[in-house]
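Incident log, structure service

09:12 report received: a user says their structure output differs between two submissions of the same chain.
09:20 pulled the input from the user's history:
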Amino acid sequence: MPRRYCPPEGQIVQAFTFALDPTVEQAAHIARFFGARRFAFNWTLERIKCDLERYRETGESRPAPSFYALRKRWNGEKNAVCVNDTTGEVWWPEVSKEVFADGVKGATDAYWRWQQSRSGQIAGRPVGFPRFKKRGKDRDRFSFTTGVMRLEPDRRHLSLPVLGTLRTLENTRRLERLISLGRAKVLSVTVSRQGEHIIAAVRVSVARPQQSGVAQPGSVVGVDVGVRRLATVATASEVIDELANPHALERRLSELRRLQRQRCRRTPGSRQYRETATKITRLHAEVAHLRRHTIHVFTTHLAKTHGVVVVEGLDAASLLQQTGLPGAKSRRRDLSDAAMGEIRRQLRYKCPWYGSTLVEADRFFPSSKTCHDCGHVQDIGWSEHWTCEECSSSHQRDDNAAINLARWASLGSVGAPVKRGAEHQTEPHSAAGDDTRKGGPAPVGPNNSVRSAA
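09:34 re-ran on a clean worker, output below:
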């Protein structure tokens, strides 16, 4: 497998996203690229499965699947497989070679991730064997790693291989200025479909200067996430801030249900069906944008203000697996609407940017059901307010958890805190793996944070 790119000293890998405004011809070309990547992915997965079945039946083994070997096989067979069934013409020259390479790489990486999961080499939930991709079910995307990847000087256009120059809906001056000054270098560009828009994520290696310092360098706060309140911020003695849950999906739920019922009455494939489906897509995009903006403003303020931020190592993914309990479906929807893992994910890369330190408490630390007055631990269920059985102190669930988390950084008896700051540097990893790492997540430093900051 190819090695992970390591940026030079003093630089980080960051992605800048821009919405594209392609012409009708360019939009059709992009859709063709989406299909070409799926085709290459499915072809590669079919070859891997055939090799595995041949080995089980005859014992004949082939070299382990690798990106370079399978790409070579693709180049040898593409003239035979990329043929239009109607006209008999070979269509692969109309698509950039990078799109096919991205599909081959995607299938190869998915296979090796399955192998690593079943052998216990990676943490997290078990990863299944990769499946074939289907139009309408797969998230349309493709990536360029070589060729023309250039932001034009007018700061309104992006040039890509084969596609040519595409207009952007947003001004690209923020990134174009860094590139022109030699402070950023384009590594790759990923084009994907998000709702109604085509998005280009420009991945760059950029020299991001360290901020002079946070407003309160000696401040240590704990952040508890929840559904009733999106986040509660507290010091070791009192609550100082709260982030109200915007309930982005809940407020639009009646409208979503009406549109979904309306779509069910339409004939699939008709004009009215497509128009209603577009309205549903637009609604989901608006909900996601509101939720993301609210959390971005909150996490940026935390990273700029406090010297140490303590968050709980919550396994947000497992909470969404609740089944069989009364109200489980509604609870899962509320948990998804709250995006409980997003605050921690954003703080992981923002804290090193602004000079603060992120501490992640152990996933099994009982922050909510530990009395912050006497330290007694008791079962409180789903209660929002509870009374300690030992000292008779009354607590609000989120306030109590935030205060206990603020004290976590100095609790040597419970376990050593895991810090993420400017002095800690290691390889980046996915949020899924972090959620299930029992010993607490590994540190991520400013030189290796890979995040999107549009």
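09:41 both user submissions now match this output. Likely a transient worker issue. Closing.
09:42 reviewer note: The two ends are 30 Å apart (CA to CA). The first helix runs from residue 24 to 58.
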